[in-house]
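Quick question, first post here. What does this chain look like in 3D?
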Amino acid sequence: MTNLMTSLQALKKGVNELYVAAPQLKSGVDQAIDELTGGLKTVSAGLTKTSDKPSDMGAIQATDTINAGLRQIKLGLVGTPSQLGLIPGLSAYTAGVSKASDGTNELNSKVPSVDKRCWSISNRFKSLVCLVQHN
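> Answer (accepted):
Ran it through. Tokens below.
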């Protein structure tokens, strides 16, 4: 029975200490909640902030702006049905140069009496300038 009484007194003492410390614990918890709430408000403001200046945009607006820019780049590369983009335009240009070259080669093979001089203006773009002189 002595052990039981000792244990009960220790329990009563522990409960009393918790009771005395509870207001301090509540104060610490309240402060932690206030600090976390303030931090979340700062994060939210950083995400949702809007501006015309890229350096002042929030993360959401900045991401949307980057996405719109990437879509414009893609549109410039592939084009639309009514306006060619860079890739189809280069393909059409290359095909046209190839046809012109094929036509020049065919002309050279069929008209041997014509003096032909061709200069390469730019190997890079495969463009040819031909001067034809009759003998």
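The longest strand covers residues 114-122.
The two ends are 135 Å apart (CA to CA).
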